[in-house]
Write a structure and sequence with these properties.
heterodimer, B: mainly alpha, 0% strand, globular
């Protein structure tokens, strides 16, 4: 057994969780239209499923979809906020 | 306690972060010895374990939620995920014979597909009818069973 591989797995998991935790701390509902974001997030996960199944899609496509969804839902939220501001 | 375990098992974040252990990604990386190099560790962490699916699930399930129960659930999810990845790396470093993960790959894809539909807002049965087993867990378990049967035969 190679101890370095075992440590490698542990380090990889720790790196992964340090990127996940910030997403759980911030309330994104204040800045994003959750309904829209969920649709784009769902689409990104469906693309991941197709990639796992062996379809040759670009690996960065889910990230692109999420970034696009992020921008669209932030814009939608911003529009909603500005439309209810008192005159 | 029962509710805690049920919520833990039906957590999409847990499934998204442990899927790489079940579909053979981590196992094959560990068996090839690639996991010993730091750049591969970083790439594995950011693409196989975390990634868009895990980040989206984290926002959906825990985004801004500061209740004690949710905190406990998140910490347990993280601990299970980290332990499972480490154990898989351990197993991978122990065995040198690569298993054929062809069947399990399709079942993992199906499980992720179901998670994607759930996140997008499609109403699907959360559990197998008349059982407490979450649908995605049942899909992955079926894949593991078929993989083992194919490996034996």
């Amino acid at each position: 057994m190679d101890l370095l591989i075992l440590v490698g797995g542990l380090v990889a998991a720790l790196i992964a969780w340090t990127t996940i935790l910030p997403f759980t701390l911030i309330d994104f509902r204040r800045f994003l239209d959750v309904g829209t974001f969920r649709k784009f997030g769902g689409a990104a996960i469906l693309v991941i499923a197709l990639i796992i199944a062996g379809l040759r899609l670009p690996k960065y496509l889910p990230l692109l979809i999420v970034c696009f969804g992020f921008a669209i839902s932030a814009l939608k939220r911003f529009k909603l906020r500005s439309s209810v501001e008192p005159i | 306690m029962g509710r805690f375990v049920r919520d833990l098992l039906s957590s999409n974040l847990l499934r998204m972060t442990t899927l790489a252990c079940l579909d053979g990604n981590i196992l094959s990386l560990a068996m090839s010895g690639s996991l010993a190099s730091f750049p591969i560790m970083v790439v594995t962490g950011l693409t196989c374990i975390a990634g868009v699916g895990a980040w989206t699930s984290a926002i959906n399930e825990y985004g801004g939620n500061k209740s004690e129960y949710k905190k406990k659930l998140l910490i347990t999810t993280a601990l299970i995920s980290i332990s499972l990845v480490t154990i898989t790396s351990f197993i991978g470093s122990m065995i040198n014979v690569a298993l054929n993960m062809e069947i399990l790959r399709y079942f993992s894809a199906l499980a992720v597909f179901v998670i994607g539909l759930e996140v997008a807002g499609v109403n699907l049965p959360e559990k197998i009818p008349m059982t407490p087993i979450p649908t995605t867990i049942a899909i992955i378990f079926t894949g593991i069973m078929l993989e083992v049967i194919a490996w034996i035969s």
